[in-house]
Amino acid sequence: MNELLPDPVYFAGLPTVITSGAVLLRDEHGRVVIEKPNYRDHWLLPGGGVDAGEDARECARREVQEELGLRLEIGRLLAVHWMPSRASVGAPMGAHFLFDAGVVPAERLQAEVVPQVAELDDWRLVEEDELDLLGAWGASRARRGLAVLRGEAEVDLVPAL
Contact 33/46 with Cβ under 8 angstroms? Predict the structure, then answer.
């Protein structure tokens, strides 16, 4: 046994971290793609939870394909939002990665997006001033990503609201 690595009991006692990958996908007019899941009251950016064996960028790529039917290259990291664990509700620590999915012409989006019926009720393109549809945390996350894209902010680790 390698004495430099702790035994499995040590690892079992470490906090759990839930990770996700999401994207900012825009059209040529700067509008952002958002989606309305059937399991939430608010809209979300395309993305989801990281599966075993994949990284956050791979997750974002997979989720965009599953949820919207689009095969896209996922670009640079825009931000990592973290949420501390909340023992009072049993919520583990979270690390949420936001990536740039680039610009896709609105005409192509309208023609090619096929929302995943099992999870989504709708999708739409919204202006930056409509991002509050994402809820406070989602809107803050999206606006931070847009600020990074415009060169107004640096890629950084950002505490969630």
Answer: yes
Report pLDDT for 2.
56
9 assigned to some structural domain: no
- pLDDT value, residue 14: 76
pLDDT of amino acid 7: 79
Give the range of the structural domain holding residue 113, as residue numbers without chain letter: 15-159
Q: What's the whole-number mean pLDDT along residues 118-133?
A: 97
The structural domain count of the chain equals 1
Report the candidate in 146, 113, 108, 116 with the shortest Cα–Cα distance to residue 24. Answer: 146
- Strand, coil or helix: 85: coil
- Quick one: 129 exposed, middle or buried, by C-beta within 10 A (0-12, 13-18, 19+)? exposed
Angle (nearest 5°) at CA 150 between 149 and 155: 45
Whole-model pTM: value is 0.88
